[in-house]
């Protein structure tokens, strides 16, 4: 299965585990059935990171993405000459600058269609901020580059066992109740439904919406958000023809027998969505940004500076992110996967 254009991978922080798991992913390209991909910058970093895992990594320097497909079978294609020293576990401004430039160019290539999708390596936001990165994270950066409002760039965590979407993301728990509104629930549910149809091939996505409070409020005994906000939002979505259910008590929704009843869970806050997927699919979780004109995925883990260069970081999440990006890009062309 090959996307129309090769996939662009941004390097992530070169002091983290991204370079080594990218190299490992290329080494497993055949068994993992990955679409051709190329990395933007960091050839020296990638070669050194691969060596730290005992991988003899051939690299093909390419001048344009269209060269990647031919080169991919025998070498990891790398676009551009920008590089830095490989010092695992020790992030630097030089490395942050390389990560920033890699992300910027990879995003531009996906926007123009020269790349079929973008897969972003994990970054250190504090270091990036020192070299001019102004967004809270890569999701917001890509959204801005695509002209999409941040609230319409929806984060979905996807693994073999579960898909979840947090309604609110990086905010204090005390701020969540005021942010849970009918408009936000309806808006995100529509974006999720469209994306699951377009990018994941589900004809009628089943969306389970959680409650905010314990036991989904228990008829108002533990809070009225379900009665006043969540139930009316669900009713409005159902009236539009969406296969939406809830509000479900979050403590029971993710049991094995319950997970077969829905395709994605729309959760009220960050930990409600991320704890179950990281428990079930930690090494294979993918962060997918829904609602964009391009396909963007990322492994659902951070830079992991503490284990970088030690040869022990799992590449499974990066492999899953690459595979998912290729499949979504393929479906956007109207081809079955």
């Amino acid at each position: 299965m090959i996307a129309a254009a090769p996939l662009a991978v941004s390097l992530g922080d070169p002091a983290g585990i991204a370079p080594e798991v990218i190299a490992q992913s290329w080494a497993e390209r055949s068994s993992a059935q990955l679409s051709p991909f190329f990395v933007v910058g960091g050839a020296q970093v990638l070669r050194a990171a691969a060596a730290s895992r005992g991988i003899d990594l051939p690299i093909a320097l390419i001048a344009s993405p269209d060269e990647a497909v031919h080169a991919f079978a025998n070498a990891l294609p790398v676009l551009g000459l920008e590089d830095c020293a490989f010092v695992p576990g020790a992030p630097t401004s030089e490395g942050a600058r390389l990560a920033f430039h890699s992300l910027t160019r990879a995003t531009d290539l996906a926007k123009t269609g020269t790349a079929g999708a973008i897969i972003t390596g994990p970054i250190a936001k504090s270091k990036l901020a020192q070299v001019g990165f102004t967004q809270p994270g890569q999701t917001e950066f890509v959204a801005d580059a695509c002209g999409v409002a941040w609230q319409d760039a929806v984060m979905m965590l996807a693994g073999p066992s579960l898909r979840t979407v947090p309604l609110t993301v990086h905010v204090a728990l005390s701020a969540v109740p005021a942010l849970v509104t009918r408009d936000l629930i309806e808006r995100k549910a529509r974006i999720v439904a469209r994306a699951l149809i377009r990018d994941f091939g589900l004809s009628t996505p089943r969306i389970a919406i959680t409650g905010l409070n314990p036991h989904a409020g228990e008829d108002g005994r533990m809070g009225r958000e379900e009665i006043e906000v969540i139930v009316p939002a669900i009713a409005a979505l159902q009236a539009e023809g969406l296969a939406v259910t809830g509000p479900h008590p979050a403590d029971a929704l993710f049991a094995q027998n319950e997970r077969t009843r829905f395709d994605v869970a729309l959760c009220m806050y960050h930990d409600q969505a991320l704890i179950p997927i990281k428990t079930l699919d930690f090494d294979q979780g993918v962060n997918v940004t829904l609602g964009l004109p391009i396909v963007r995925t990322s492994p659902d883990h951070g830079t992991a500076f503490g284990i970088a260069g030690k040869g022990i970081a799992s590449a499974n999440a990066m492999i899953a992110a690459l595979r998912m990006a290729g499949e979504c890009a393929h479906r956007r062309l109207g081809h079955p996967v």
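The mean pLDDT is 95. The two ends are 7 Å apart (CA to CA).
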